[in-house]
Amino acid sequence: MQVDPRMSYIAQTHPKAPLDRDRYSLPRLNRNAPALCWRGIAGRGLAVALGILLTLLPAVSQACPFCESVQQTIRQQSLTMDAVVIASSVDSQLTRNLDTGIVKMKIHQVLRGGELVKVDQVIDAIYYGDVKVGRRFLLSGVDPPELQWSCLPLTEDFEKYIIGAINLKEDPLSRLRYFRKFLENDDRLISRDAYDEFASTPYEEMMKLGAEMDHDRLVEWVQNPEIGADRRRLYFTMLGICGSKDDLPMLEAQLRTPTKSVSSGLDALIACYLTLAGEKGLPLINELFITNKKAPFKETYAAIMAIRFHGTDGGVIPRSALVESLHAVLERPELADMVIPDLAKWDDWSQVNRMVKLFKDADEKKNWVRVPVVNYLRACPLPEAQKAIEELEKIDPGAVQRSKAFFPIPIRSKSDDKDDQASRTRKERFEKSKRALVSDTRSDKARPIGGLPINGPSLKVADASFVATGDATAKRNHSDDAPQLTTVASIPGAKLLGSRILPNQLNPWNLTLVMVMGLASLCIGIFLVLTGGRVFDPPKA
């Protein structure tokens, strides 16, 4: 089985992205990592078990469609703590215990866990950095009654920011109103934490803030080459919510002459442009990135991600228009497997003959497209699709067997009414956000975007597993950052919640076999660890 040469490109530029190309192959482990010191057979058993089990776990999709929340925010971390306090050091560098690192701290304000600690109480915390009498810290405690404390030094501004963040209401809109003031704060810890709050906020909640966003500052930020790629993606997303057609010339200029800084957030830029331009913006995107065979791989990939976003979350352009752009990608066989899952999920069954041709034309070096093609045909309700599968099975029975063994039939996306009704105008959506601001309605559940109902966790993109992109995308010789991958986990059963699927759409025996083998390997691995296992010493030079 051939490996898609693009995969290493995605692996290098998107370390968090799921690599679909060989999803049923075990991931490679870094044997030199200090935390992973595998011992002999025991290590191999655990590695195999963990590899199998990890492939069975669905990934949690990020909220902001083009953002990557790198870590938990301070507010989110505080919710997992038993106690959170503001305290100051009673000890100095001379009086502290240098051997144990214990520093006596006096509590000034209790933010969480008032039943466990009190103001003016003196506690012991371990901190090996420099201290002086009166230096203030954020202390987070766990495991009562003998709380174990972690320490975070505070500046005056950082302390005010943290107190405000932890005391916020649960209302997402209230949180966004608070954190938007700190997105470009001079203190990097503050600005990073504020960014992570936005990055972990559902897109539909972000839309409610639209009328309050600072449009002019967003325009300034997206044109600033010093802004990082992750922030640029967020700011383009926000500009798409609060911007207007007056911003299109500026966005088009960036699309036509993308600089290195722009290229790293090109997916969000394209999505922003399409949000403001609507269906009329598709011809330019097709011309620059889809039908242009000279366009670098990462730029075409960015355009596909933006189109995928608009087919799932955007609610501006009807899918009937978006699939025309994806049809053009099928004319490029080396990229076709990236869009076949979307066509299946969006109920576009007009490409059966083209799928058959892709399967037949795939040579040994590019046969990864065959499994996605088979999965498309398996999901297709047309009678000619089943006939095509029987024909293709004679050409490559292995591809058909892999499709049936490892991938469920694609679950088609649902919509409330007709597809075109999912395309709501910018004015309607923006007016809705303003009405939400006036009423300040609290909502804990994700609401539909553009007429697309959301069941369970908000899913941002078409599930690539279906048509198995046996994989996803990967190598072109580029050193620039690639667009943010926005697929959800594509493994059997990853989208069973909130989806209608018939029992005969899955192959439960194959899934059960994989799970049993994974658990058995884990048990064997643990047994070998407990009993010592055999240690393989490296050969002597």
Description:
The structure is a single chain. The chain is globular and about 80 Å long. The protein is built from 22 helices and five strands. Mean pLDDT is 75; it is low at 7-62, 415-427 and 436-506. The longest helix is centred in the last third of the chain and has 24 residues, at 508-531. Among the domains are: 19-58 and 507-541; 77-165, Beta Barrel (OB fold (Dihydrolipoamide Acetyltransferase, E2P)), CATH 2.40.50.120. It has 541 residues and is an alpha+beta fold. α9 packs parallel to α12, α17 packs antiparallel against α18 (370-379) and α19 (383-395) packs across α20 (397-406).
Write the layout of secondary structure elements.
Blueprint: H1 7-13, H2 40-56, H3 74-78, E1 83-89, E2 102-112, E3 122-126, E4 136-142, E5 148-153, H4 156-166, H5 172-179, H6 188-199, H7 203-207, H8 215-222, H9 229-242, H10 248-256, H11 260-263, H12 266-277, H13 282-290, H14 297-314, H15 319-330, H16 340-345, H17 352-361, H18 370-379, H19 383-395, H20 397-406, H21 426-439, H22 508-531
Antiparallel strand pairs: 1-2, 1-4, 2-3, 4-5
Helix pairs in contact: 2-22, 8-9, 9-12, 10-12, 12-14, 13-14, 14-15, 17-18, 17-19, 18-20, 19-20
Transmembrane segments: 509-530
Biased composition (Basic and acidic residues): 413-434
Region (Disordered): 411-450
Short structural description:
This protein has helices at residues 7-13, 40-56, 74-78, 156-166, 172-179, 188-199, 203-207, 215-222, 229-242, 248-256, 260-263, 266-277, 282-290, 297-314, 319-330, 340-345, 352-361, 370-379, 383-395, 397-406, 426-439, 508-531; strands at 83-89, 102-112, 122-126, 136-142, 148-153. The chain has 541 residues and is of the alpha+beta class.
